[in-house]
Amino acid sequence: MTIHAQQRFDSLIEADERIEPDDWMPEEYRQTLVRQIAQHAHSEIIGMQPEGAWISRAPSLHRKAILIAKVQDEAGHGLYLYGAAESLGTTRAELLDRLHTRRQKYSSIFNYPTPTWADVGAIGWLVDGAAIANQVPLCRCSFGPYGRAMVRICKEESFHQRQGFQILLRLTEGTAEQKQMAQEALNRWWWPSVMMFGPPDSESVHNARNMAWGIKRFTNDELRQGFVDMTVPQAELLGLTIPDPELRWNDERGHYDFGEPDWEEFARMVRGEGDLPEQRLRVRREAHENGAWVREAAAAYAARQRQAA
Amino acid sequence: MNADWPRWEVFLRARRGLSHTHVGSVHAADGETALQAGRDLFTRRQEGISLWVVPSEQVVASDPDDQDSLFEPADDKSFRFPTSFELPSEVDQM
Ligand SMILES: [Fe+2]
Ligand SMILES: [Fe+2]
């Protein structure tokens, strides 16, 4: 590295310009991005599982087609993101290996169970909703390929959130049991969704550095507040009750006040306790291993074609 | 054998009259399957009507360190831009 390279990097960041893969960048910036983008990619593809499990049980052909399209989008999101991570000098195989051997995590939101059809609605509305709140600012991330992947992803996410909300809307318009099912799904998914933005700012270690680098644009707590403010009126529209007795509008702040999430539970989930993380990884590894013969056959075929040419 | 498929850069023509534009990359064993992967990944919502795929390793790129020497000379040749010529208002639309 030359001093010139560091200065150039600093001035690009200072000017809110984008860093591209060929540019010199501090090793820590590169490592931070590889980890963040890879874990984001892992979350997209692991996230296919809880919803994928409902494809065969969707209540109509129409809902089934919608859910297949959504799960397919999530696979695509994973691929956009693996591509962005690879531009930093790592390989797809290495990243998948780190996921499979638990050396990199995925979002613990996908380690909650989805016992009813209403959970599919709640995931779309709340989990994709929280993901959007997180991802929109990432479209302006200082690392070009990550920002561009996020633009593509955000365009597709909006349909995910709407279809989820509509699933719950239909249920709340239905029988008392259906409405109850919707309420219970909200009860299950509210707090996990609020915790998706990560630990409070007071405990978030890398907030300041990642903000300075333009990787993060808003703090965890700012994003969380935005999500709550956006979602409360939507819950009212559904006629459902958010399971937080402390939730109320604060006229002075111009925001909703809300209760403290159970950060103990969050820590347990991040540590990967319980049966579901084991199952998610087993399904993922099996999918990878069962696809090995396809990868090998296609590579062998391509090698033969090249020889014949 | 190494079954890690090589990387391909994907270019998409959004509609007739526009150039192909880089949209991202895929992994595939050969060009034909790279096109299929590109189609599945980048055109699920009528984003385009034509795809190119190019092996990533075949891309020859300029070095960012040469950016100044390669691209800066245009800076002191503002006469290449029509706006650098002040003309009487009668011919302002020229
Ligand atoms: Fe996604
Ligand atoms: Fe999504």
Summarize the structure.
Chain A has 13 helices and two strands, in the order H-H-H-H-H-H-H-H-H-H-E-E-H-H-H. With 309 residues, chain A is mainly alpha-helical.
Instruction: List segments of chain A where confidence is low: pLDDT < 50 over at least 5 consecutive residues.
Output: none
- Count of alpha and pi helical runs of chain A: 13
Strand order of the largest sheet of chain A: 1-2
Note the overall shape of chain B. elongated
Instruction: Please give the largest β-sheet of chain B.
Output: 3 strands, antiparallel
End-to-end distance of chain B, in Å? 65 Å
Question: Strand portion of chain B, in percent?
Answer: 15-25%
**What fold name goes in the CATH topology slot of chain B?**
Ubiquitin-like (UB roll)
Most extensive chain contact? Answer: A-B, 30 and 22 residues
Helix and strand topology:
The complex is a heterodimer of chains A (309) and B (94).
Chain A: H1 3-14, H2 27-46, H3 48-52, H4 61-86, H5 92-100, H6 117-138, H7 144-172, H8 176-195, H9 207-212, H10 220-238, E1 248-250, E2 255-257, H11 263-270, H12 275-290, H13 292-308
Antiparallel strand pairs in A: 1-2
Helix pairs in contact in A: 2-4, 4-7, 6-7, 6-8, 6-10
Chain B: E1 7-13, E2 20-27, H1 31-42, E3 50-55, H2 67-71
Antiparallel strand pairs in B: 1-2, 1-3
The structure holds fe (ii) ion (2 copies).
One fe (ii) ion is lined by residues 74, 128, 131, 157, 160 of chain A.
